[in-house]
């Protein structure tokens, strides 16, 4: 059974930092592209950051220079280091594992709230 379990969310003041973790089980983690998405209240889910099996990364423009995605294939964990957080970063953050063209898994989400 495939599981993606996020952790590390919480409440933080603007300008602060959080590190999200997503631990995977039941998949050959190293071959998957891993990503973080988020959904703010009343908005559509959006891609935050992605890291391929070869560790190439890409980021949403809104988080470039503030967020860093990384992976540890031995531990089957993907991280999202979030610095200089802003109130507009408040959202539920979801872990995503993808193996093109059709295999996609989602975590249950973790809440990040940034107070002004």
SSE arrangement, N to C: EEEEEEEEEEE
Low-confidence segments: none
Mean pLDDT: 97
Q: Give the CA-based shape.
A: globular
Beta fraction:
over 45%
- Structural category: mainly beta
Helix content: under 10%
- Please work out how many helical segments DSSP would assign: 0
CA radius of gyration is 13 Å
Largest sheet: 7 strands, mixed
- Kindly, what is the distance between the CA atoms of the first and last residues, rounded to a whole number of angstroms? 40 Å
> Using DSSP, what is the number of strands?
11
What keyword list fits this structure?
mainly beta, 55% strand, single chain
Question: Can you characterise this structure?
Answer:
The protein is an all-beta fold and 116 residues long. It has no helices and eleven strands. It has strands spanning 3-7, 10-13, 18-25, 33-39, 46-51, 57-59, 67-72, 77-82, 91-99, 103-106, 110-115. Strands 2, 4, 5, 6, 9, 10 and 11 form a seven-stranded mixed β-sheet that branches. It has a four-stranded antiparallel β-sheet with strand order 1-3-8-7, with no helix packed on it. Strand 7 and strand 8 form a beta hairpin. The chain is globular, with a radius of gyration of 13 Å. The mean pLDDT is 97.
Write a brief structural summary.
With 116 residues, this protein is mainly beta. It contains no helices and eleven strands. It is globular, with a radius of gyration of 13 Å.
């Amino acid at each position: 059974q495939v599981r993606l379990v996020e952790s590390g969310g919480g409440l933080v003041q603007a300008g602060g930092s959080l590190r999200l973790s997503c631990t995977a089980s039941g998949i050959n983690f190293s071959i998957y592209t891993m990503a973080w998405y988020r959904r703010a209240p009343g908005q559509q889910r959006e891609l935050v950051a992605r890291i391929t099996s070869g560790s190439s990364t890409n980021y949403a423009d809104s988080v470039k220079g503030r967020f860093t995605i990384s992976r540890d294939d031995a531990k089957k964990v993907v991280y999202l280091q979030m610095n200089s957080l802003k109130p507009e970063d408040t959202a539920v953050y979801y872990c995503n594992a993808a193996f093109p063209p059709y295999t996609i898994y989602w975590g249950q989400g973790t809440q990040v709230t940034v107070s002004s």
